[in-house]
Batch of 2 targets.
Target 1
Amino acid sequence: MTEILTFLGKEDQYEKYELFFGPNHPGMHGNFSYILTVEGHTIKKVDPDPGLLHRGFEKLAERRKWMQNIALIPRICVPEPDINEVIYSIAVEKLMGIEVPIRAQYIRTIILEMARLGAFLFGFGGIGGATGLYTASYWTNADRDYLLDLFEWLSGARVYHMFIVPGGVRRDLPSGWIEKLSETVDYLQKRLYEYDRLIYNNPLIVKRLKGIGKLTKEEAIEYGITGPNLRATGVKYDTRKMVPYAAYNKIDFEIPIQSEGDGLARAIQRREEFQLSLDIIRKAIKDLPDGPVRLKMPNPLKFNVPKGEVYVKIESARGEHAYYIVSNGKDKPYRMAVRGGSYTAGLVLAQKILVGMRIEDVALWMATMDICPPDFDR
Amino acid sequence: MEQKDLIESIEKNFKYKKEIKVIDGKQFIVTVEKDKVLNILSFLKLIDFKQLALITAVDWIDEKKFEIVYVLFSYSHIQQVLVKTFVERDNPQVETVKNLWDVASMYERDVHEFFGIDFVGNDDLRPLILHNWKDLPPLRKDFDSLKYSNKMFGKFKKDEEL
């Protein structure tokens, strides 16, 4: 560690210096750091330094029973925890070869889309924060609270819900919840037009985001960029549509795409997908079937999952979030590997694309790419 | 291409020893020898498996082997393929694939740190996530996290001992 800050001493260098962008930098999203080598204002080299948030989930999961892990895994991803429960449950169901009741599938879809809305609201706020438009982050965080209220009513918890379990969902929706959800969706729809006026039609934001971190289709695929960032470059692929899970195969929707692949396109793509999530929730509420919500499963502390392995991925707000789960037929997972949605963007693409940018662009680039440190430090 | 045709194409064009297993309609596994990993991956990249989604490993301690898993995806065939290979646990070495994908380098660094597997040809295997780690690589099955915790942070005291 002593070698790091010695450009001045070693090479008599005055123009070039190292800047620790994070973990205490106001533009940094969470506990993560880029060590930037900077000349004047221009970035010359980027060295990502994750590890400040590492909690060893992959190891912890190996020591807990299949059901106990439900309490652990939502904590992997802070802004959008429900995706973890769903992937894990789908993986267990696939390995056990069971089919979840249709009502539970719809409830899962609604919850996933609500979590997605919450994550997008965080993202909009991030763009506001990085451009000095703090109103955006105040508004979005306040609106996200309405979603958290609904989650609290549903599961008793605001952030980590632990509501989705292998075999379905924990319990049926409380009476009156759907009506409240419809109201919230309508409210968010109204607010989206306000966001248009505040953020997306704001000349300052448009000018600032234009051209930031431009990516082509080929580059995006090569670097493993997924989700809204990939669609912003023009690739018409959405896991919800192409490899459907939950009830997405029963809901009809169109995938929005952009073509420019720069910061502005990514921001607008997220705005379009916010609209899409609202639409999907509306459709899911309309079609919500009756029936049981949870299968009869074996004793939660005593069930074994048959031998096998499976890679399950779903569409999170940051892209492809996936688990690779291996079972050896015992009562605990043998191995659980996590692929975070922004892993490759934050650790690999950053090393290439940030070079030549200015220091103040880093936070903005991270906001438009939705870089999330829990994806690196599982 | 459908999964059936893809598997047929692999059977026909990839001559070395392999084993193909279908998980479901969108996913299948190809297991190869460890010195043929590069061949199969470059072949798959050629038939449009352009995205490298993950490189990870599994510690099969009873069989004294590490299993290395490469997860690829194709946006045109909408198929996920898991390429697997086994390396000896005493001498875990496999060739790097960083020349095929830039992102491989970071995944290999990750796996190297958590399993101690050497990726020959990858010169950037610096520690990534763990700081000042001096013990066994932590995701190996013989790493005892309780023992490590007791050693590093002192034994957990019961209430009456305090």
Note: Chain B has a mean pLDDT of 88.
Target 2
Amino acid sequence: MGIHRGHKARPGEWLAEKFIFLVSLSAILMVLLIFLFVAREALPVFLGQTNTALVQKPIPPVEMDKHSPAELQAYLELTPDQYAKMNKATLRSLMDVKVEAQDDVPEDFRNDPDAKINTTEWKYLVDSHKWSGYDKPEYIWQPVGQIKKFNIIPLFVGTLKITLIGLLFAVPLAVGAAIYVSQLARPRVREIVKPAIELLSGIPSVVVGVFALLVMATVLQSIFHYQTRLNAFVAGIALGFAVIPVIFSIAEDALTSVPRAYTQGALALGASRWQTAWQIVLPAALPGVFAAAVLGFGRAIGETMIVLMVCSASVMSWSIFDSARSITTTIAAEMAEAVNGGPHYRILFMLGALLFAATFVSNMIGDFVIHRFKLKLEGKR
Amino acid sequence: MNTVTPGQYLPESSSDTTRITRSFRAEKFDFWSFFFSGLTGLATLFILGILATILLNIIINGWSAISWHFVSTIPKKDFFDANTTGVLPMIVGTAFRVIVMTIFVIPVGVITAIYLTEYAANTSIITRIIRAAVNNLAGVPSIVFGLFGLGFFINFVGKNLDKLLHNTDAVWGQPALIWASLTLAVMTLPVVIVATEESLKAIPPGLREASLALGATKLETILKIVLPQALPGIMTGGILAVSRAAGEVAPILFTGVAYYMASLPGHLSDQFMDLGYHIFVLSTQSPNIEQTRPILYATVLTLLMLTFALNIVAILIRARVRKKLRALG
């Protein structure tokens, strides 16, 4: 706070200061740790060390010495650490297990071309593929069963669909309410409305989920007459409820921080309150309002429980009245059944890492825009 | 608030004398202003309407189903049965994990806020990085915190702890209350930091100057003058963190929550049942949704009463702190 000592700190004081400084670094440490450890679990996918091919050409254990360590490590699906710790006997027994596993492959899959595919290759993760039994190439997320299909595109489409519906619903409402509360409402009204909207953010997302599941889904179906009762549309609207308070409070903050001289000048020139709000205050606060929408997007893309409760099926479809499954939902629903360390587990972590990256970027953009906006209003730029 | 009515004293065009007299009427009616102001007002009303609908729906449906027996009973394995079920272990589990979380998050959050307001130079690069990190932490999706808890606390810290202690069975290297609490502590860190910082800034610099002028050191000033003054703000931060954490389900999904436990959690390495997760289970895995509906609503009401009581206290304290801040200009 700008007060500086004239004298040198005492040793105890010096220690305490260093301690305070070190503790304050914990926020940075946590962000780094989150990134490191989510990425660490996902690393084998990025490095191509996972293999889900059902039918593999087994390497007979006697030929072990003919192959390089790198080949063996990839073949046995081990991390370099695990590989380094194993002695020859363990490796040999692992290879025996591998050969036996090949004998256990069900007869139907022996001649299936899909069974020879490693479905965790990037080609199969992001591009459509003509699976046996389908007439045309399709994007499929189907992580259980003999041939595990890990195409992440349906999840991206689902996330995008739900998030966009949520934002299209929430942004106009929240920004409208922010304009009303900050510019048009009387102080007494403002003092009631603001805490009330803040209270909305205090409702846990499972509770919003229950409301959407039991009440909203029925009401919306009776209005729009669509087929599936629980779909991306219902999830999007419910998601909007959760995002409204976030967008509202940031937008309201931005609108209030526009200097009062702007408003007074416009009013003195004869503009009405609405004209002042729309033509003077809103343009001045536009970066802040934009940042509010961006941060709302970050919040919406990461919301889990609402979407988990309202829709579940991962269908590749752009229709908003079909079911959809978001990335967050997939992680939440499938992590429990994924084998710790297996390909499914790795891919779920990879989705988490992508999600983290997406929100990281949207937060950075939002904060940067708000920072510039505040500097500009203070006349420092 | 500005009390000048717009358009009251100014003629539209000075050459038109008839308009001058007309514009002296109380206010010129402008249809579009009225229309758009009305729209924003409607948007506000709509949001308040949503809030009211959610709350009323839950209170009305939940009130008839909630009872002392419900709140104080440990349910049998089949907790979908409306007559014998209860939520005592869920309340205890939620409270337990939140209390453990508070023990970790409050000291770290408060010390960080003290550094940011009392020691750090606002322009220094490290301060800006800390602030960016705090903002980012606030925006990380809750499910990613869950993954982090699994990847770091359980698979890294817990497993290595087991190795160190020579545990043959996994004691710490599995989902446990302590890991769920720590994950939530990381998640709510920004809430505590921001609230504490706000209340520290509300303390007049004069108080610090007076203390320093009387010969107190900087640390003494912070401990004996600044912190006692900031206590309401720190409490607000703690309460907000607790209410946020109490309702979160995603971060604890893989880090400690259990579908069913016959006994209450008694140790940090135990798993626990949780109100929010129980709501999720009741609403999505019930064999007969019509029959479980009353207990579902009663559970939701229990959770809502818990978080709302906390929220309202926090909002009241914060309103007072903000008023003080505004009075200081």
Note: The two ends of chain A are 23 Å apart (CA to CA).
